[in-house]
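U., I forgot to send this yesterday:
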Amino acid sequence: MNRNAIKTFATWARTYLREQVTVRAKFYGITKEEIEDATEVSGGLLVAGQTLDAEDAKLYKSLRKELDNLQQTNKPAVAVERLIDEVAYTWFNRLIALRYLEVNGYINTRVLSSSDPSLVDPDILREAGDIADLEELPGLDLNILAQWRSEANNSPNPDEFLYQRLLLVQCSALGESLPFLFNPNQKYMGLFLPGTLLNKDSILRRLVQDIPETDWLAKGLEAEDQQDVEIIGWLYQFYISEKKDEVISAKSQVKAEDIPAATQLFTPHWIVRYMVENSLGRLWLEAHPQSGLREVMPYYLEQEIPPSPPYERGEQEKIGDLGGSNLQPQDLTVCDPACGSGHILVYAFTLLFHIYKEQGYLDRDIPALILTHNLYGLDIDERAVQLASFAVLMKARGINKRILRKPPKLNITMVRRTTQQMLLPGLNPDDWQGLIDAFKDADNVGSLITPPQFDLERLQGQLDQLQGESPAFGELISSLRGLLFQAELLRKQYQVVVANPPYMGNKSFNPTVKSFVSEKYKAGKAELYACYILRNLELCAANGSVAMLTIPNWMFLSSFEDVRKRVLNHAFLESLIHNGRGVFGSDFGSCTFVIRNRVDKEGTGVFKRLFEKQGSVASNKELAERFFDSDIFYTKPADFEKIPGSAIAYWVSEKILDVFDKSEPLENIASPKQGLATANNDRFLRLWFEVNNIGFGYSNGQEAELSKNKWFPYNKGGDFRKWYGNQEFVVNWKDDGAAIRNFGTENGGKQKSRPQNTNFYFQESLSWSKVTSSIFSLRYFPKGFIFADAGMSIFFKNSFLI
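Result:
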């Protein structure tokens, strides 16, 4: 797969489509500065100086209704911006879906390209007469085609005129089988179809020519490289990449509409396989040891010793396990609460197919069973939900060619926000208000929402009655049905929860996210993904599995200690792969793991580290290869509780664990401290040989101030040194650091000095550098040194001798 070509096309396509949509919107009097009103005239509608015929007038009214809906919760300029974004990504998704469909022969005629490499025009244009004559395309017959050709004669480009109508009728025909992409209620999208599609530099031509056709071909279920799935995910990832960079570079709180772009990252296929095989696959193998599933799971990690009992007897026993040997394929529910473009769900489909097949189910029956009983996905990003739905349905189509004729309802949905306008007359407020309130901020927090209790049948009955009595409320009733659907998915528990969750540090939380997380997920307040660790454990059934890909800081940092304790005290960390840097490029590192939702204090986890040198960066291909070559650590996760802060230190030896368990804590005998930040080292620091008047050997700040010296030895950290060294600098601490203490406070300076722990200045200490890619090293500093914020130091309560 040529990922560079995919990235080039996707990033260009976003800019191109947004420009095209902006121009078309202006044609209809819609700009960020002004939204012009339309006027009824004889035979149509007058809009921005243009007279629309009856058909286009109908589409325009539908467009204005959508814009009015957006303006209910946005200022006009923002509403127009969101409309432009929505239309652009809808056409992007539609075009890549059509390309996938035609390359794999899932539609009768090629719509974007020619099946004859020597020709350029799409088959649907060249063969329009035959298609109409045979009525192969719903909505197209000879009479309609004749009418379009007659109208085309009055157009400056007849072929372009006819092709656009053929393309739209194909989109309309797909509305029944793929409504999430070709929504029949969004006919106004036709007003924004990109122009000049047959030109050599059009988006259609570039899509066909820039990305090799082989990259679109569906692979069989046995294929190791399922790149047909990856191309959909990568196109989506690169489509939003510029927006992502823009949001992140702003370094500010992230608005609701920018959260998808800011937080989503595509999951490499090898990590998807590890997560799904060691969660879904393991559950099946435990219940069916004779299964041959192990043969198709190369990323499955064998336990060193047989697993301990399913769970400690107690409260979890009341809930029950997964049924043991009675576990059936339909029982294996898999949920991705932040499903993105559906990569995880698609591989779960593959594994589930193998499970059903070995149980004797017919190939043609399996896809509908999987889509109906096994796969569940949620996301706050509609464009991602569209592609996820498309991806799993295409996987099903690869097995059952008739499934698109009447596809089952998918359990994949966007988590939509609610408004008080949804509380329609005739509905019981006591039944509905709690649900409406629960999802009022869904565009910010998505699947983190836990719905209140509700009676699904009762509420559905109210909607059925209201729909019969007040058909004018049809659109709002449809929205309420969607509310019930998303609430039902979020109150269920699943045997397997797998996710590459949103990544966003708390400094980027907007007020809504910050307030919600502080109230509902206080333990995970440092990072959004940490909240999903907690939420996914809630979504997971007893003895089920949670598999995730995250940043590894939750394994060690004190700000995630409560998250670690939740995992270690109430669940079992079954396996973990410490990837290092490279999964997302030159990143901050990642880890992927499986948590069993049961207590198992005697259980042994399987751990792998795919790097040797801290900070080194590897490609995903290298990491996937290292998965098979790297050593395995078999560790009892319960032992992590012996380590202060319960750090996930899977590599430590029994001897070190014993030291932690039995020795006196460091805090009882010493105090680690962070020191002086001058805010301007060029001004306040010198090398020792550059100055005179250096004060050596003072024991405290009072002695140093009385000395009237200006410069004093300074521990600034520095390169790797063992035991002693890095004593080159001196700092201006004349008059108890008066110049530094006042620096930045004058004239509202942006950078201010930060003298910290000054009562420890000049005391003897052990020190280490704050930032290093080398191994940890301690250095002795005698009395007389001031220490920096980068020269981390520890001070013992009783003096010591070296």
